[in-house]
Amino acid sequence: MRTLLLSSVLGAAVAAATPGVATAAVTAPARPAPPPKEVYGGAWKSGHVQGIAVDRRAGHMYFSFTNLLVKTDMAGRPVGSVTGFTGHLGDLAFNAEDGRVYGSLEYKAAKSFYIAVFDVRKIDRMDMSAEDSGVVSTVYLKEVVDDYTADMNGDGVFDGNTGATPDHRYGCSGIDGVAFGPAFGKRGGQQRLTVAYGVYSNTSRADNDHQVLLQYDVRRWKRYEKPLTQEAPHTSGPAATNGKYFVYTGNTTYGVQNLEYDPSARTWLMAAYKGVKPAFPNYSLFAVDGTARPRVRPLRGQPGGETGKVLPLAPRGERHAATGVRGWSGSPGQYGLVALGRGLYYVVQDGKVTEDGVTKQTARARLHRWTGAPPNPFTRLG
Questions:
Q1: Are residues 170 and 27 in the same domain?
Q2: Which stretch is the leader sequence (predicted)?
């Protein structure tokens, strides 16, 4: 998405500088204002911050606070909010092609997992209802439900929301990280929504050591979108994905919390809570080269010689000699991560404050530059 926007600006500049081109007819779109060094997401009686999305041209930032979505301007002033989520609202991603924000939304007790789609132009006041305001539509993800509810030990019992079980295929605990970017192995082209599994922490099994990434072409998702009905979850969604991929990282605690594609580096970043398996380095950030072609290979740890489309980790950061896993051991990004291009990122710092005896959750999106140096590849600016 951001690549397309940047290309429009650069294309206009090239045309204006090319002999024989009528520069008067070329109108370059307005450039976004320089990103501020920090955007404060406010203090809310809610769950902790899960992720952010940014629409720089409109001058808005969106914060997910688990059961609350907050819209601010780039000075951190609240513009509106969406409340009333009884499930888990996770990471967010802005889709520049339709101007909407997409987020992961879980209802584990109901065995229902969705992408929540926010018509953010309608968010113009505080405390808008997630169900009744017409702001939120949802799309059901059957692939996730199938893996979450998989009876891996064949006892005929669904063990529910717990990692202390052999059930849940690949250790799937639902979904968290979301981002837009090209199909894996492509340098550009049609943007797809990539959805990362949450993965339970469980040191007693060997089939939960991959991050699982699903890709979807959302251009025709309007036919699936339904209003959010939390008391009667719907099952309207695509029957299949546009690609299912595996990245060998070792087990993490609840999988990819924040997923982000950097078009200027053609790199996917996966920020996670560290795992606890002693055989692995348990990094907090991993990178995937977006241009690397996925290869069908046996999936390590899976029973029956199962194969899948495997993506390699990028040859960056620290390298664990015993496993070959690469990443960064001291990286932030688990609470929010957005690439702005040219090596700039917003990285979110979570926090708490007490106001009038009430504990509230806070979020600060702070501008960083990517250095790639271990153990923390981000350097804060300002």
A1: no
A2: 1-24
